[in-house]
Amino acid sequence: MATIDPVPTYERADRPPVDLRTDVPHPARVYDYLLGGKDNFAADRAAAEKGLQANPSSRVPPRENRRFLVRAVRHLAAEAGIRQFLDIGTGIPTAPSVHEVAQAVDPTTRVVYADNDPIVLSHARALLTGTPEGQTAYLDADLRDVDAILDSPVLRATLDLGQPVGLLLIAILHFVGDDDDPYGIVRRLIDALPSGSYLALSHLTGDFNPAAWEKIAAIYRAQGVTMRVRSRAEIDRFFTGLELIEPGVQVVSRWRPDEAGEATPPTDAEVSVYGAVARKA
User: Fold this and answer.
1) Which residues contact 159 (CB under 8 A, 6 or more apart)?
2) Rounded Cα–Cα distance for residues 140 and 52 (Å)
3) Is residue 193 within 8 Å of 280, Cβ to Cβ?
4) Tens digit of pLDDT for each residue in 167-190?
5) What digits encode the pLDDT tens for the residues 10-21?
6) Using H for helix, E for strand and C for coil, what is the string for the chain?
7) Domain locations in the chain?
8) Taken in order 27, 123, 11, 167, is the CA torsion positive or negative?
9) Which CATH class is domain 22-257+267-279?
10) Beta pairing partners, 254
11) How far is residue 53's CA from residue 47's CA, in Å, rounded to a whole number?
């Protein structure tokens, strides 16, 4: 890997401070609540509880999605030899974080986290820990602003885009509406990475329980938050032109599950998240 000059590992976009608006629910905090975290407020808990009324299994997708993330990063680090990761849509820090999983395989691994959620920004310092040999950085940026991410001095100083990168888009694209061209966003990010890079992606689906997930999406929309659950065919499109690794696009609990799994694994309908890892040739 090329030598990269050290720069500050934290960057905030040039925009005015954002009010956390604790009086309205926020996706990152709702997710945190469903995972059993403590970084949430009454409005977040109320929205989550409404979601649980619409779908009593709503705690399962965040849990299984998180497990998928850990397995995917471990695979990329241990088996694919990836030593650089770009995690967009990081969310509130939850152990183990990407750098903890990857640097356990190789302490020299570098990770850039990117998110535009104000609650994540307030926790960003927790993402800037890691091994002395490696490096972690945080970028305050919106997934929809691809140029701001790719042109960031923090990203350019932390990652060598001439070497393979593991791009992580975990449970973020269902918050990107069709009008924002999510497929174009993913393509532009992939196009900026060299051959041998990987995409790990997960996405909510309504395939198994469309009525329940439409109710949940409506709860988010009523609060001004875009949620677009997509079908298996729509999620497959994100991997166009890439080489899917086995077992391909699967409900995340079925993607290379740990041998010591649960005695009674969740059903596909309870999980309702597809995920996959694919390689850029």
Assistant:
1) 4, 84, 86, 110, 112, 165
2) 31
3) yes
4) 999 999 999 999 999 999 999 999
5) 655 444 555 667
6) CCCCCCCCCEEECCCCCCCCCCCCCCHHHHHHHHCCCCCCCHHHHHHHHHHHHHCCCCCHHHHHHHHHHHHHHHHHHHCCCCCEEEEECCCCCCCCCHHHHHHHHCCCCEEEEEECCHHHHHCHHHHHCCCCCCEEEEEECCCCCHHHHHCCHHHHHHCCCCCCCEEEEECCHHHCCHHHCHHHHHHHHHHCCCCCCEEEEEEECCCCCHHHHHHHHHHHHHCCCCCCCCCHHHHHHHHCCCEECCCCCEEHHHCCCCCCCCCCCCCHHHHCEEEEEEECC
7) 22-257+267-279
8) negative
9) alpha beta
10) none
11) 10
Closest by CA position to 97, among listed 76, 74, 122, 79:
74
For residue 106, the one-letter residue type is D
Rounded alpha-carbon distances, angstroms, from residue 159 to 124, 137, 218: 18, 10, 39
